[in-house]
Amino acid sequence: MGARTRRQQAALAAQSDGDESPAGNGTVEMSSKKTNTTAGKEVKENVYLFAPNLIGYLRVVLTMASLYYMPLHPRTCSLLYSVSCLLDALDGYAARYFNQSTTFGAVLDMVTDRCTTACLLVFLSSAWPRWSIIFQSLIALDMASHYMHMYATLSMGGSSQSHKKVDSSRSWILYQYYNSRTVLFICCALNELFFIGLYLLSFSSPILSPSLLQPVPGSGAESALTASPWSAGALEMARANKIDSFWPWVITGISAPVMALKQIINVVQLVKASNWLVEGDIASRRALQRKRN
User: Fold this and answer.
1) How confident is the model at residue 28 (pLDDT cuts 50, 70, 90)?
2) Burial category of 22 from C-beta neighbours within 10 Å (exposed 0-12, middle 13-18, buried 19 and up)
3) Distance separating alpha carbons of residues 124 and 71, to the nearest angstrom
4) Which intervals of the chain are annotated as region Disordered (predicted)?
5) DSSP 240
6) Cβ 103 vs Cβ 161: under 8 Å
7) What is the pLDDT of residues 126-161, one digit of tens each?
8) What are the structural domains, with CATH classification, of the chain?
9) Among 51, 83, 85, 257, which has the minimal tally of Cβ within 10 Å of its Cβ?
10) Using CA atoms, how far apart are residues 121 and 202, in angstroms rounded to an integer?
11) What is the rounded CA–CA span in Å between residue 168 and residue 173?
């Protein structure tokens, strides 16, 4: 084979290699591009359908059902209300197990808790009108302390900060309350149990039942009080002494100290959140003053 022939073959081989090389690189580039596209593709998640949020929706349904039965059916109402409260612990476990902790879920959980307790306290205000100022104050304290705490956490700690993440240096009692699941569960459960006990006593206790509906003999008030089945008098007459009062008294007595502790924690939470917000205000004003100077 001559030198020219060898040079031609070498040139053809080089051309062939040159043609294959871009194709190979192109294949690698295409493959790499596909891989990057696949890797970079965002997986769309429906937060509304996360397991803990589904449990939250179920809690709302159970709470609404308990409110429906609340005026005249203490056993059914107490059962539905208690199941809804117990699911409060399950949704937190589901969030950790499925790695589905979200801000929406945390807010849904807190709003459900606050509204559920408030609705029960509203009923107790109507059942025990002489003590309505106490129940109204408990509603206000519960709402205010949790709102202030969550707002302070989000505004001062950042939007990704959980309201349950409390530093021990800020408040020892809040740190113990939020960082121990056992303490948190016991306080919340027995707090609700105390109000359930009072709710059951409104059906059962002749000691606590108001005597306003006992008509004066010969006054004709018997028919006036119960003329309408929707009147307060008719409702109370229908509610009176439906169940035995022994266990409601036991439930109320056992849970009362924890309920009192929970209210103390609410006061501490309100004060600490207020102080945290004031600290932020002072820091902002100082920064603004330095900027002006």
Assistant:
1) very low
2) exposed
3) 10
4) 1-37
5) T
6) no
7) 888 889 999 999 999 999 999 999 899 888 876 666
8) 47-151+170-213+234-292 (1.20.120)
9) 257
10) 12
11) 8
CA separation, residue 228 to residues 38, 165, 231, 239 (Å): 69, 52, 5, 15
Q: Which of 88, 91, 113, 142 is catalytic?
A: 113
- Residue recorded with tokens 């009362």: 256
Going by C-alpha positions, the residue among 185, 178, 176, 189 that lies closest to residue 153 is 178
How is residue 277 written in tokens?
Answer: 């917000």
CA neighbor of 171 nearest in space, from 273, 92, 247: 273
Confidence of residue 24 (pLDDT cuts 50, 70, 90): very low
Geometric angle at alpha carbon 118, from 148 and 202, rounded to 5° = 145
| Count of residues in the chain | 293
Q: What is the pLDDT of residues 194-235, one digit of tens each?
A: 999 999 998 886 666 554 345 545 545 455 555 666 666 677
Which token pair is 160? 């990704």
**Dihedral, CA of residue 153, residue 155, residue 157 and residue 159, to nearest 10:** 90
Closest CA to 255 of 72, 63, 85, 70: 85
Rounded Cα–Cα distance for residues 127 and 93 (Å): 36
What residue type is assigned to position 92 of the chain?
G
Residue type for position 164: K
